[in-house]
């Protein structure tokens, strides 16, 4: 019999056994491209598409995670802001699931920024 306890035995004794990683609520998979971590594969895919559109000269450019303030001090962070060659600017949000929280933000968006289109991407 040994006077020493293994690390796994100690963790079991104090109830600190490792737990399996939690599955995200909407089953999104964080994905990193160009050193940028995106919340989902779909968002990362749209980033890649926007990069190709820029390289092809179909859009002027795009930004990642622009932040806006909505009524009541609610902060809304979209996924992308895009401008095309004609000078049109719009905001994109990649959604797999539209939550109640997002539906509220979308209504507040329409009231607060009627001149700036919010496009939902799948």
Describe the structure.
With 122 residues, the chain is α+β, with helices and mostly antiparallel strands. It has one domain: Trna Endonuclease, Chain: A, domain 1 (3-Layer(aba) Sandwich), CATH 3.40.1350.10. It is 30% helix and 30% strand. A hairpin with a 4-residue loop joins strand 6 (80-84) and strand 7.
Which structural traits does this protein have?
alpha+beta, 122 residues, 4-stranded mixed β-sheet, Trna Endonuclease, Chain: A, domain 1, two-stranded antiparallel sheet
Q: How far is the N terminus from the C terminus?
A: 61 Å
pLDDT < 50 runs, ≥5 residues: none
Multimeric organization = single chain
> What is the percentage of strand-forming residues?
25-35%
In the CATH hierarchy, what is the class? Alpha Beta
Class inferred from helices and paired strands: alpha+beta
Average pLDDT works out at: 88
Shape: elongated
State the CATH topology.
Trna Endonuclease, Chain: A, domain 1
Helix content: 25-40%
Work out the helix count. Answer: 3
Radius of gyration: 22 Å
Query: What about the largest sheet?
Result: 4 strands, mixed
Order of helices and strands: HEEHEEEEEHE
- The order of strands across the largest sheet is 3-6-7-8
CATH architecture: 3-Layer(aba) Sandwich
Compact overview of the structure:
With 122 residues, the chain is α+β, with helices and mostly antiparallel strands. It has a single domain, classed as Trna Endonuclease, Chain: A, domain 1, CATH 3.40.1350. It contains three helices and eight strands, in the order αββαβββββαβ.
């Amino acid at each position: 019999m040994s006077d020493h306890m293994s690390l796994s035995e100690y963790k079991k004794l104090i109830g600190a056994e490792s737990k399996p990683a939690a599955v995200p609520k909407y089953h999104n998979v964080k994905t990193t491209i160009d050193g940028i971590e995106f919340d989902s594969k779909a968002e990362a895919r749209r980033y890649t598409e926007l990069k190709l559109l820029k390289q092809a000269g179909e859009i002027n450019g795009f930004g990642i995670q622009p932040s806006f303030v909505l009524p009541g001090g609610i902060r809304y962070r979209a996924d992308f802001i895009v401008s095309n060659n004609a000078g049109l600017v719009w905001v994109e949000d990649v959604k797999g699931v539209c939550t109640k929280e997002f539906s509220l933000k979308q209504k507040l968006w329409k009231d607060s920024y009627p001149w700036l289109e919010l496009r939902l991407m799948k």
